[in-house]
Design goal:
The chain is 41% helix and 17% strand. It is α/β, with parallel strands linked by helices. A seven-stranded mixed β-sheet has the order 3-2-1-4-6-5-7, sandwiched between helices. Helix 2 packs parallel to helix 3. The protein is globular. The termini are far apart.
């Protein structure tokens, strides 16, 4: 075992940032109409619930300033902490501090909240691969952004999400995970086309239900 590598049975604490519903999924406004806020909550809940079913995940810490989202995500098993309202990466660092406080010996990862097709087994493959490096990340399906960033226990947690974050993480020395068969972990949802692609993969039940409401509107 390499120095600093967690044992094979070590868990991960994942930090998931969730925007206020006023600001969430605005690019889906035209497609989702009055269901946009419900869709954002459904996507986040399906993401968190799937992550918690992953064998390598010990806990999910959600960072949000929205009371509606906080209640729903707490209901599916997340530990919810407030958002310091200082930007996405500050929110992730805040959540990571809580994760380290709860489990200082565990690896810490940031996972985007908009992965409604997430498969626990595929997430486990990503986490197992990430555990081989001090810091690692998984690019999104467009290979522009990032859906996951993680560090080993004791390694500084320095996420660089937002915009072209793939290049940012590469520039900071994080290992890019080039894995086949993890489409559900890469399929984030920002646009109607993204949502259609996620639905084609097969989303969690909440997202599927709201999508049916949108289709029937």
């Amino acid at each position: 075992m390499l120095k600093g590598m967690p044992p094979e049975n070590a868990g991960w604490s994942l930090v998931v940032p969730v925007k206020t519903l006023v600001a969430a999924k605005t690019r889906l406004t035209e497609a989702a109409g009055p269901h946009r806020a419900a869709l954002a909550v459904a996507i986040a809940c399906d993401t968190v619930e799937a992550a918690l079913r992953c064998a390598l995940v010990s806990r999910v810490v959600v960072v949000t300033g929205d009371p509606v989202a906080a209640g729903a995500l707490s209901g599916v098993g997340a530990r919810v902490v407030g958002d310091p309202e200082a930007g996405l990466n500050a929110a992730l660092r805040h959540g990571a501090r809580e994760a380290v406080r709860l489990a200082p010996g565990e690896a810490v990862g940031a996972l985007q909240a908009d992965l409604p097709a997430l498969r626990p087994a595929e997430l486990a493959r990503v986490l197992a691969a990430a555990a081989e490096f001090d810091q690692a990340f998984l690019p999104d399906a467009a290979e522009v952004g990032t859906t996951f960033y993680g560090v080993r226990p004791g390694v500084p947690f320095a996420p660089g999400f937002g915009g072209p974050s793939r290049e940012r993480h590469l520039g900071r020395g994080a290992k890019e995970l080039c894995l086949a068969g993890v489409d559900s972990v890469r399929r984030d949802v920002d646009t109607p086309d993204d949502l259609r692609a996620a639905l084609a993969l097969g989303t969690g039940p909440r997202t599927a239900e709201v999508a049916r409401l949108i289709a029937g509107a």
